[in-house]
Amino acid sequence: MTIHPASAEYGIWFQRTDVAGRDAMIPAHWDAVSDAQLCTRLANEDGVTVSTVEHLMAALAGCGVHNALIEIDGPEVPLLDGSSAEFVSAILGRGLTVMDAPVRAIEVLKPVTVLKGDAEATLRPAAGLMIDFHIDFSDAAIGQQDKTLSMANGTFVHELCDSRTFCRKADIDAMRAQGLIAGGSLTSAVVVDGDAVVTPGGLRHTDEPVRHKMLDALGDLALAGAPILGRYTGCRAGHALTNMLLRALFADPEAYRVVECTPEQVALLPGAGLSRADRPAVAA
After folding, report:
1. Is 29 annotated as catalytic?
2. N or C: which end of the chain has fewer CB within 10 A?
3. Domain residue spans in the chain?
4. The pLDDT of residue 256 is above 70
């Protein structure tokens, strides 16, 4: 997989270099999501797909990359260590270019909420991007966790990007049965079994699971097509619910507007002010 720079207004696109005879270009956009049960899968009108895009999308958004072409020679983004850290390290290590073009963002104008069972997700107005998350798992190794963070000042890189996906042993079997995480192992996720963390080395943060859910949320929100100025609150939410939330937002013209960011707003966006010195140590 290779990430190429792109011009202003290009957005984020995937190109399946292994596909011939069909459209190989897949937009990283909320309305291209074809499945979001265990991961986020994108598809184009020719049925060409790319799965598990959320960790890479979080890395791009968290580093302030709004335009890129991602060449990939298979149907799934590499899982790596189950976090965004290696993507972030590679992006910041290569360096970022500030374009001589306006930065546009999606400003949330009124609260929008979606529900599914006991899960809930909301977007409401805010000056920058805030993420609140609550999780509640029966597994004692996870339990209840809450966290709130502003995504300004490189917070994603410093606080979230190294947090790995987590699952039960049974989850691994389910994902492999669907052809996902083909290269996954105990080193590419936090695997729990009741009150025990099975993964060698244990947790990177005592609240690593909720941090990873926030990472996922940022990646799925990045499919909005532009940075969001708003406060996201997720309670037991996952990929599918966050996509439902974007669909609800864009279905209501009174709930949002696209704005050309002022310098003050740009400074609040994820990725603003980052440099090579901010590369995460875990992947350096």
Report:
1. no
2. C
3. 2-279
4. yes
